[in-house]
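Request: Could I get any protein with tokenized structure?
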Amino acid sequence: MNDLPPKILVVDDEPIARTNLAHVFSRRGARVTVASGGREAVAELEKDEFDLVITDLIMEGVDGLAVLERAKTLWPDTEVVVVTGYPTVETAVTAMRRGAYDYLAKPYGIEEARLLAQKALEKRRLRQEVKLLRERLRDKPDPLTIIGHCPAIERLKRTVAQVAPTDSTVLLLGETGTGKELVARTLHLLSARRDERFLAVNCGAFNEELLENELFGHEPGAFTGAVRLKKGLFESAPGGTLFLDELGETSPAMQVKLLRALQERVIRRVGGAKDIPVDVRIVAATNKDLRREVEAGHFRQDLYYRLNVIVLTLPPLSEREGDVALLSRFFLAKMAKKLGRDSLTMSPEVMDILAAYPFPGNVRELENIIERAAVMAEGEGIDVRHLPPDLRGEPVRVARPCANEPVTLEENERRHVAWVLGHCGGSRTKTATVLGIDRASLWRKMKKFGLE
């Protein structure tokens, strides 16, 4: 877990009480911020997240319960202890119902306050650990799922095992669909950072402004609608790994910001004026030839050399002799589990077709083909008729309107969706698979076209 000292916000309109508490926690290594009232406390909460807030209950203007509510709205995992000179059951129950960890009755001893804060911080730490474990259980792949026995993959696995324990930046090169994110996750799982977060972002999916906000976060008021502080991905994975996919798609201006983050290990939020240190390992990936991009002036040479520490090249599936059968069996077992079937098998004819296919979409395309065939097959056996038409050697039929009945593109799409839905017997899962979209996209189209 992250070993940074806890951040505590102390809120009290009595200077002596405020100073004493701040002194106690600062001496024990905490990063303490003080606020002389509720309004100032809310302003601090809107700027940053705290592990613990200790707030007086009775204050002029914005009282302690308002501070509690604002803290829980902005930062649900922040623990809050309410201090009151009027300890009644009603006061305690009200505070606890609104999310307070506990309350502290005046006059209190310094040791009593310290122990209560320690318990509150321990509760937050345990909650964060549980959340992190759930994320890892949900997202973590088995490192052994780098499937393949061809020489290129065997060399890749050996190199991954060798470089993973280091903190060196890694650049993954390979065509789309070759498994670059899987390799990045495996590098993380085999490293000393395995207990911290792995975060991934597709740099090609955002324009420059959105990508900057996603990576570096923003300060309150940085732009219209930025009402609260947002931490970017660089800050959100302390001690972990950040995977920057499709890095070759970034703009020159973004490349400058990334270079600074890699060189100086600091970032600056959008609208911010101070540098924030970050501790995150960078694994980057691209399907472009970055050396040629540098020569063409599309990619910064200094960033290229900063990334070009350890380079791993993932081979296309068409060059991985014997791995199609191995991967097919893996995806069959995965789909059988997903569909609740005892097993799934493929006929020899299907295996022959797959072995001869060039797979321009690489491993991702193979997985999609297996998923489609598994969904289309009613039993446990997959044969040639369950493959896409182009793999069966049949021409792909495209729905077209009759020549004497011109229709809009939208109407043509509605007819095609309706036809596939009918062809699949009304099964939305099969229809989405055939159309190459997810169920949520299919649902939106059906609702749009009145096909529900």
User: Anything to note?
Assistant: The chain is about 45% helix and 15% strand. Residues 318-386 form a domain with the Helicase, Ruva Protein; domain 3 fold (CATH 1.10.8.60). The first strand starts at residue 7 and ends at 11.
